[in-house]
Each structure stands twice: as C-alpha cells, then as structure tokens.
Amino acid sequence: MSWLELPSLALLLIGVFCANVGALGLLRFPDVFVRSHAATVSTIGGSVVSIFGLAIAGSQLGAAFPAKAILTALIILFTSPTGTHAILKAAHKSRVPMWPKTFCDLLREEEKDG
Amino acid sequence: MRGGRKASRFLLVFLALYGLWLLLVSTVRFDELVVGAAACLLISYLTSAIMVYGGVKDKLNPVKWFWALAYLAYYWFYAEVRAHLDVIKRILNPRMPLKPGIVKVPYHLKSDCGIVCVANSITNTPGTVTVNVDEAERVYYVHWIWVVSPDPKVCWEKISSGFENYVRRFLG
User: What pLDDT score does B2 carry?
Assistant: First the structure.
C-alpha cells in the first residue's frame, strides 16, 4: 500500500461510475444523436480516466508503464471523436429519423436552402 | 535556407521519436539504443516532410507551450468535468430533461490544426458533438443536448468560446 494508490483508486472509481452511467444513458436516450453523448461519457469518463488512474498505479513499475498507458489514452482521445463524427455525419446524411421532440436542425434547413 | 529548414525539421521529428522510444523501452542497454536510433532515423527521413505542421520555430516557442498546457488544464479540470456532470444528471434524472438540436457555431481560427482541435474538443465533451464543418461559412454544425437558443452568437459563447480562446493562442 503506497500513497499513490489513493489517487489511482479514485480515478478508477470515477471511471467505473462513468462507464456504467454511460451504458445506462445509451439505453435510455431516444435517438442516435442523443445517444452519442452517452457514448462520450463512457469513452472519456470511463476509459480515459481509468487509464490515467492505471498510469498512476503502474508508475512504481518504471517509466515505461505510465508512458504506454498515457499513449493509449492519447490515441483514444484523438480517434474517438473522429469515429463519433463519422457515425453522426453518416446518420444525418442517410436521414436516420431524429427524435420527434428535437428542437431544431439547422443543418437540414441549410441543405434545403442550398 | 531551404536546406536548413529541412534539417531542423528532420532533427525535431527525430528527437521527438527517439524521446518516445526511450520512454517506451526505459532502459539504457546499448542494443536498444542503437536499434531505436536506426528505426527513428529511417522514420524521420521518410516522414519529416509531412510530420511537422507549420514552422519548427512554433514548436520551440515557450509561450505557445504555456498556452497549450493552460488549455489542457482548462479542458480536463473545468470543461470535461462540467460537461460530464451535466450529462450524468440528465441520464439519471427520471424525467430525462432533453431539448436536442443541431445548431450553428461560428469559429474564428485560421489553421486547419486549430479547427480540428476545437472540433475534437467539442465532440469529446459530452453534451455537444460536431456533426459537420462548413469551411466556406466558417461554422461547425453541432448537435447539442440542451439547446439554449439557436442563435449562433449564444451558441459560440456557450459551446466553443472557452476552447477557442486557448487554441487561438497556440495553434492560430
């Protein structure tokens, strides 16, 4: 037991909480677009924060462990928004139905005008 | 002059790659050092023409590094935390307060790198997702979980002004 275990444990617990809440949101939310917000909670709050916690916990094993962990977190941080963006753009282009109570869709209006 | 710029680019990529290699192996054994140097030399020879975005001087400017670190601190300890709490509250609320919509958010950045950085920051904070970018009109189309107002000015203030004020100072 070292004092480093406390912050890493805290980060891991935050990660577990966010991953579970994100999964719940994925089930509860009404359409693809709103669900993507819940998915972001899982990827950033769930994975990236847990990996930071892991990096702190593994720093006793030498510099290589946290370096690899942080590299993994960075790769997730760069690739996950690209994936989300591609999915939503495709969904919007192929006219996946939006939730009927959606407040406004300025992108669709733009396409109609143009 | 052109040769000098090429050489400094090459050196920058090589040092960054070799530093990463040293971190990953984290030993000072002779064979590891030699193999790493050979691999890094080959990779930086092949990619240094496309790896460095903008000038080499930019990368060594301490003021820009300061703003990049300030941005990271703002992003992780304020923007991410606030957005997560907001979306978690909406998920756990039995009545699930939602008012989603796609709004226009103008941006005032010049470099491609800065535009991508802000778009990724918007997507990575729960509650807002970039769906499309219109480079002619200089706007992002952002799906927002709680549309306060479809007015672009309000959207800019609420969604991206925080990111832009930092990113503008180190990516332009």
Answer: 61
